[in-house]
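Structure Section — protein described below
Tokens — whole-number codes for backbone shape
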Amino acid sequence: MPRAVVCRELGPPESLRLETFDAVPLAPGQVRVAIRAAGLNFPDVLMAAGEYQLKPPLPFTPGMEAAGDVVEVNQAAGIAVGDKVIVKMRHGAYSDEAVAAPSQLVKLPSTFDYAEGATFLAGHGTAYHALIDRGRLQPGEVLLVHGAGGGVGLAAVEIGKMLGATVIATASSDEKLEIAKERGADHLIRYDREPFRDAVKRITDGQGADVVFDPVGGEVFENSMRCINWGARLLIIGFTGGIGLAKTNLLMIKGASVLGVRAGEAVRRNPALGEVRIKALTGWAEAGKVRPNVSHRLPLEDYARAMRLLIDRKAIGRVALVME
């Protein structure tokens, strides 16, 4: 019988349970995918704790993205048994199988294994939406990426460099910064060695960053406002470090903008954005220009330990659950 990680009560990862379930028959237009890997994202942790903006009714299975093989098709055009696919979900990926519509499926890039496919679209899609759709990053601009050792941070480094920006990466360890350097970062800042706002001013000869990519929030966001250039765009990706407070005087003085980034919601409101984004990302993947850095691959039964890697910021890039 297939297995799934189930949230029956809101709380920490340890409150989740691995359960078996009966596979349901497919309705017309549906596809069954045998999941080979599921990607972990910080919203999974927040959702299980009841702290995310999306609050599925209990019980539910966490997980926003997966990759695997199509094993059954019921009148779904353009999909065939044996296709290797990425599955886009709002939740439900921590499982051995998924029932999906064709619109949720993307062909797995030939350059990726299942774990890379399962950790691709959420992180790189968010970075794409932030830098291109929202931030309008231009060649020659200075991009400051916070949390550059994380999944979305590394994706932002990779895409920012490809777009022609000068990329400044911040992280909490030399190991994380080394990976960021491999992905294209031009300048590296460790939070504990120098206040990053001073380092950014030093690197830019006092001008500051043109675009700030911030999945951290809290004091990081507040200090970012003190090292921005005129007309800067501060991109709010998340709040793993807490909710930041905007100093409106600092924003006014620099003519700066603060932009919220919700890649998934943007596509739900404007599906055409998603089509352009996926075409670009999969094209870059096939060309070898982008690739998730999967630092940990754990079996499905180790879901709590895998989620703790995100909470404790032990991952470098992405974490995947791998099904046998």
In short: Residues 3-111+297-322 form a domain with the Quinone Oxidoreductase; Chain A, domain 1 fold (CATH 3.90.180.10).
